[in-house]
From TrEMBL:
Gene: nth
Protein name per UniProt: Endonuclease III
Cofactor: [4Fe-4S] cluster
Annotated region (Disordered), positions in chain: 1-190, 417-441
The family this protein is said to belong to: Belongs to the Nth/MutY family.
Coiled-coil intervals, chain numbering: none
Lineage: Bacteria, Bacillati, Actinomycetota, Actinomycetes, Kitasatosporales
Organism: Streptomyces crystallinus
Amino acid sequence: MSAGSDSAVGEQPAGKPKKAAKESKSANRAASAPEPGPGASTGSGAPGGPAGQGESSVPGGPAAPDAPDAPAKPDAPVKAARKQAARKQAVGKQAVGKQAAPRKAAVKEAPAEPAAKAARKAPAKAAEKAPAEPAKAAKKAVAEPAKTAKATKKAVAKPTKAAKTAEAAKPAKKAVAPARAALKPAKPESHVAMVRRARRINRELAEVYPYAHPELDFRNPFELLVATVLSAQTTDLRVNQTTPALFAAYPTPEELAAADPEAVEQLIRPTGFFRAKTKSIMGLAAALRDEFGGNVPGRLEDLVKLPGVGRKTANVVLGNAFGVPGITVDTHFGRLVRRWKWTDEEDPVKVEAVVAEIFPKSEWTMLSHRTIFHGRRICHARRPACGACPIAPLCPAYGEGETDPEKAKKLLKYEKGGFPGQRLSPPPDYPGLPAPPLEAG
């Protein structure tokens, strides 16, 4: 074998390329070797003779000039084989790498469920640890309102006995509250709105009490003047039951001025404060006799000069005996106009002035009668019958009294409640019954 071929063979890689190189070398050798002639020896020739065609037997000597063994042609298949092997090796490495990657992933994913769970929890724990402080603070912030809400729910869920009692008492108040809310304006009522409401109340009362009148029995201005003075601190009914005997004994101012005070006291005793009232009626009788010729004057300025006569009495006499409009501010009138929020004044003179600005003068007298009628029959001082009031929607004080309609009906008085009125001789259009005399009462 030549040195060149040895070196070529020595450089070939192991494996299949090596086998291919050997096979190609053997083929080259078989093709290049000449067939031996007859008698030719396979060994070396005689000394000094020409070298045999074959390998030299001299150790270390030069190789025989075998032309066919040395050419580079046999290297072409070797190089091709090398390249092919290198390509296969590269492709194999890529294939192995691709297969190894899924295998590694499979190996990572292969662990049992506990390991997988642990692997899953690990990032979660890391994520939880990172914002641990804000998360704890947030949880505490959420937990605190939650605890408060739970405590509130428990407090609401378990009401005390006092709360139960308050809840039981609420329905009655709730029944009144909507009506008050509907009647009371959200904003302070303007003066114009109040005037309109007041005049509407007057119109409503005119429909409810078309028969309103003075509830004192009288036949002339003198009897009305005396009866009005006696009505102080008592009822019109009691006065009406007392005056028939008085006027029968003393029908004129002159006769009453000349009467025995003790006899007069006995006649008017049922009205109360009889001694003071005796002085008043006898004094005004004397003033009428001495200053006005026994006649009742028709001017406010003259009437208020008489003993025991004030603006209220003077307006009653002027409005009902002389047809001069006047506002009668008695206890009923003053109470109702304050409930209706027409005024907050307590002084009768100031109340009269305020009301006089709200209504035209032509309405003063009848307004007084209607208001007093309503105060005596429905809008009582202590327990008004709100549930039976025809002007409840216009009343700011609705709900101060009984709001149940059935219970409120039982509080009505006089003709509204089916009872006799106050006059023994009422007007013909009065729908109620006349009052009984004193003896029958």
